[in-house]
Amino acid sequence: MAKVLSYLSPQKIESVSSSYNGLIEVIEIFGEKRVLVNSMIQSGGMLEPLWQKALKKVHQLGLNPKKVLILGLGGGTLVKLLNKGFKGLEIVGVEIDPQMIRIGKKYFHLDENKNLKIVKADAIKYVLKKGKLQEKFDLILNDLYLGNQIPPGSESKMFLHNLKKMVSLGGLVVFNRLFYKEHRLKAEKFVKILNKYFKKILLLRAWSNLLVLSFR
């Protein structure tokens, strides 16, 4: 019934408080489930075409990633898009919030993706640890947000240094940044910082976001 009613008005399916993200809501609208964090879309909705634009560019560049790291798994929008666009992937998804992982499994069937390894961890600490071990990924998708804020430490020299070490030669990191009002200046400053770590930067505008493709 909720799915039918969702074509008339958004239907709230679940609402839960998280110590990491605050208020998390699962809603259904036009037959599609979405995850909101403090009223901002975190999975589904406009995030799909946003990330589709990034992955389309990956295709256009002739890249064929086999090992992918998602920082900020959320409800798993990226997992669906990756498996739809590429074959033979090995995906690692890092998510700090157990509520988000539970929601991803319950409503978006994340655990049905046999090529996905879900790691419950602080993504910043994960990168600092794995960077030292030099585990390599062909593609890293950085979607780290707590609500509409960038987590402290995700722009630090140590984090970016280790993140670069985790990218295979010829691979890239895609950063998703908000790009409106006060977020615009922060994103522009961040791009300047990235130029110190990566040999090439490509910018893609996507609605009120900026996708920063950073090549090693």
TrEMBL record:
Q: Which SUPFAM superfamilies match?
A: S-adenosyl-L-methionine-dependent methyltransferases (SSF53335)
- What InterPro entries does UniProt report for this protein, alphabetically? SAM-dependent_MTases_sf
Q: Which UniProt keywords apply?
A: Polyamine biosynthesis
List the GO biological process terms. polyamine biosynthetic process
The name under which this protein is listed is Methyltransferase domain-containing protein
Per the UniProt record, the lineage of the source organism begins with:
Bacteria, Candidatus Beckwithiibacteriota
